[in-house]
Amino acid sequence: MQTAHKNQEEILAKLRIEKLNPMQEAAQEAIHQHSNVVLLSPTGTGKTLAFLLPIIQSLDVNCAEVQALILVPSRELAIQIEQVIREMGTGFKANAVYGGRPASKDRMELKHRPAILVGTPGRVADHLRRDAFPVKDIQTLVLDEFDKSLEVGFELEMMEIIALLSHVQKKILTSATNETEIPGFVKLKSPQILDFSDKGDSSLEIQLVLSPDRDKLETLVDTLNRLGDQPGIVFCNFKDSIERISQYLFDHEINHGVFYGGMEQIDRERALIQFRNGTYQLLLATDLAARGIDIPELKFIIHYHLPNSGPEFTHRNGRTARMNSEGTAYVLQWEKEELPDFISDLKPKSGRVRDVLEGITAPKPLMKTLFISGGRKDKISKGDIAGLFFKQGQLEKDQLGMIEIKNDCAFVAVAAIEAKRLIKSLNNTKLKNKKVRITEI
């Protein structure tokens, strides 16, 4: 049984949000009034909060079973939504289940049922086959980034899951684009469609950067050097390309992280943590980073390879120029390369690197990320960690960056020049009565 139920004003205050944006207000009203809702809104506009608020208001505090199921296409999005629910401080339990971590961990958490379960289709289907939790109390189903989760690769699991959820009263589908036909097995009858996909006030500029060579590595390095020290993503289509480009960037002293599907889950999570906290200003990634994941506001993205479709181009570009902000998408184009219609129709500006860019220096690391071997289960808070680094570590305020706390560990960004000293002075220190290891990742 849940122990608390905070109202919306308390939740927004905890999240430090003064008011909902027009999309969130419209979504909240539609979800309350309609059984089937399709929400289309650009990346970065707050769709997660838009559907979580009405879901939480509908939960029964006296029910000890799973009441809402949120299906997502990636592990990172599952983790992110779970984290948002925790930060809302509603008193309702939430858990994320996904491939890449031991199923035994899931089973332990599911023994004490969450009110909201977030998961990838494969892992959720596996738990349902094993009767890990009953489905009779699941009243709400969310398909977040549905254009991705309804693709062929997930289709069988999605059909299996939806067929089992016979008691669902409300279905909510979200996406940044309106390019996917919703399959009949979703059983979405007369949905209320909220289309905010072209309502943002962002200002996205698309620039073609011409490369004299088919291999665009030199043009990429020149582009990054001219862009200077600002956060951005370079998108590639293949894991092998990322590995080759990454080595080339390191050879040219451009600090960066990498993020793609073939990485171990722990490495994927740490790459995003380091990107969020400023250890890396640049991320080299596949389309896995194009949607859903929690990353900072970006100044630019670069298409080293073009995606195969217009919707994926839109999702990539949604990483920059979010609502009420500006950003630039650079397309590296070999001079003899023909552009697909979804780009040429947008009539982007064209030129060589020196004509379209100005900058001074390549990105340099300003922060380092430290690992702490204690987390939420040890009752450790962000304030405890900040106190340790300020008092015993003698850090100045501007030398301590983002702190992220997980269940069994934490990560903290510190000024790069202080990292080694801090490890030496703070490693094996007690934090909330627990001796913690502190190392650099």
Model description:
This protein has 441 residues and is α/β, with parallel strands linked by helices. The chain has three domains: 188 residues, Rossmann fold (3-Layer(aba) Sandwich), CATH 3.40.50.300; 154 residues, 3-Layer(aba) Sandwich (Rossmann fold); 74 residues, RRM (RNA recognition motif) domain (Alpha-Beta Plaits, 2-Layer Sandwich). Helices cover 34% and strands 21% of the residues. It is built from 16 helices and 20 strands. The strands form four sheets. A seven-stranded parallel β-sheet has the order 3-4-2-5-6-1-7, with helices on both faces. Strands 10-11-9-12-13-8-14 form a seven-stranded parallel β-sheet, with helices on both faces. It has a four-stranded antiparallel β-sheet with strand order 16-17-15-20, with helices on both faces. A hairpin with a 4-residue loop joins strand 16 and strand 17. Helix 2 runs parallel beside helix 3 and helix 6 runs parallel beside helix 8. It starts with 7 loop residues before the first helix and ends with a strand. The mean pLDDT is 88.
